[in-house]
Amino acid sequence: MSSEKFIKNNTALITLIAACGVVLISLGVRQTFGLFFMDFKNDLNVSITQSGLAIGIQMLMWGLTGPIFGVIADKYGGHKAIGLAFIFYILGIYFLYSGPNTGLFFQIDLGILVGIGLGGTAISIPMSIVGKHFPLSNRTIAMSIVTAVGSFGYFISPLYTNYSLVSNGWVNTLFLFMLVLFLGFVMSFFVRSPSLTQSIEKPNDQSTMSALNEAFKNKSYLFLTGGFFVCGFHITLVGTHVPVYIADRGLEGWTAAAILSLIGLFNIFGSLTSGYLSTKMSKKVILSALYFLRGISICFFIFLPPSNISSFIFGATFGFLWLATVPATSGIVAQMFGTKYLGLLYGIVFLSHQIGSFLGAYLGGLFHDLYGSYDYAWYLAIALSIFAAIIHLPIKEEAVLRLKTE
Predict the structure, then answer these.
(1) Residues whose CB is less than 8 angstroms from the CB of residue 50 and which lie 6 or more positions away in sequence, other chains included
(2) At what angle do helices 219-248 and 37-44 cross, to 10 degrees?
(3) pLDDT tens track for 71-130
(4) 178 Cβ contact list (under 8 Å, min separation 6)
(5) Max CA-CA distance within the chain?
């Protein structure tokens, strides 16, 4: 495949590069919050349950605002939606850094404001804008590139954050986060939706309500939405609670940071592999296999004796499966309904993901404080892996009748 065929115009190239930068920054900052939990507990008197609740609210707000930012992006341009979201993200970190940041304000800062910011900056909106620039044959590859570069943020951010927390303290670390997020705000102006002349899809007059009705009457869309719930539960349980789980098992703090970094590193390979395979074979089969393998990875992690080696293996294997679900999931949405309302329709699928994320973050902390361990949270995660592996199999990967007759 030649580069001329893959990159159709300069706008597509600039958008792809800028979207990669936006997602790298947004997800990189997001991945580190679990490393702050003990500092929040000691300095702000915030319990593990309260921190888990804040992350749960954050995930829920991320999901609830995703479709809203999707509508803004679909109607007014991706750069406006992403730029607006970065303002909320920066405000959330600023108030967490300077105060008020205790009690209810902790939930507002880390939960609501940062969650709204993630709704327009992390994965779904930048990737949906990129998807509008590429035809079906190349779309999942382009989306997987965005996901893979974002994963590099997952890799470097926990390593630096762990170092900075020890050397500079959590307050100064958050100040640096604000500077990095401002850079993302600047990058957002280059994530441009294609013009009418650049669009790779035939124009149509379908309304927003018609698009929603079409999607919710489609059983495959509902199955996909239900399966993505499990993805959210998994990654937020792991990303949020692994640092405390590692400490409970008697391992050092740097081991948790290494796990999170390995997740980011191997997620690069997993996302690219998923994007490539999605152009060669059934996307639903890929998704079913990914969820089943997640359950296997969790089983080995929690049932093997605690050690750095088993922890690193978990980080690598779960990382390979981490966001590998995203290119195939978003690719199915675009394949079924086209790209005109991709931001909105994928945003709704992602809302289900974030409801799962809320439960993964909150139930993990709740189970830990109630029973003194994360065992029940892990058992639930394994059961959900089996559920997701099954529910993807009936999905029909085909365009709706409207697209077939255009």
Answers:
(1) 106, 107, 365
(2) 60
(3) 898 888 889 999 999 999 999 999 999 989 888 999 999 999 999 999 999 887 898 888
(4) 90, 93, 94, 97
(5) 62
**Residue type for position 45:** N
Task: Look at residue 2 and tell me whether its pLDDT is greater than 70.
Answer: no
pTM of the model: 0.77
Residue 97 has which token pair? 């850094």
Q: What was the pLDDT predicted at 202? A: 60
Question: How confident is the model over 148-158, as a mean pLDDT?
Answer: 81
Alpha helices in 168-282 (DSSP H): 169-187, 208-216, 219-248, 253-277
Cβ proximity of 131 and 334 under 8 Å: yes
Q: Which pLDDT belongs to residue 405?
A: 61
Tokens of 367: 């189970």
CB 211 within 8 A of CB 74: no
Structure tokens at 358: 């809320």
Please give the backbone phi and psi of residue 218, each rounded to the nearest 5 degrees, phi first: -100, 115
Q: How far is the C-alpha of 225 from the C-alpha of 287, rounded, in Å?
A: 12
Is the CB of residue 384 less than 8 Å from the CB of residue 364? no
Coil, helix or strand at residue 328: helix
Per-residue pLDDT band at 1 (split at 50, 70, 90): very low
In CATH, what number does 10-194+207-405 get? 1.20.1250.20
Residue spans of the domains in the chain: they are 10-194+207-405
The residues, ordered by sequence, that sit 6+ positions from 204 with a Cβ below 8 Å of its Cβ are 338, 340, 402, 406
Burial 15-52 (b: 16+ CB within 10 A, else e): bbbbbbbbbbbbbbbbbbbbbbbbebeeebebebbbbb
Of 329, 318, 307, 313, residue with least CA distance to 378: 318
**Total Cβ atoms within 10 A of residue 3:** 7
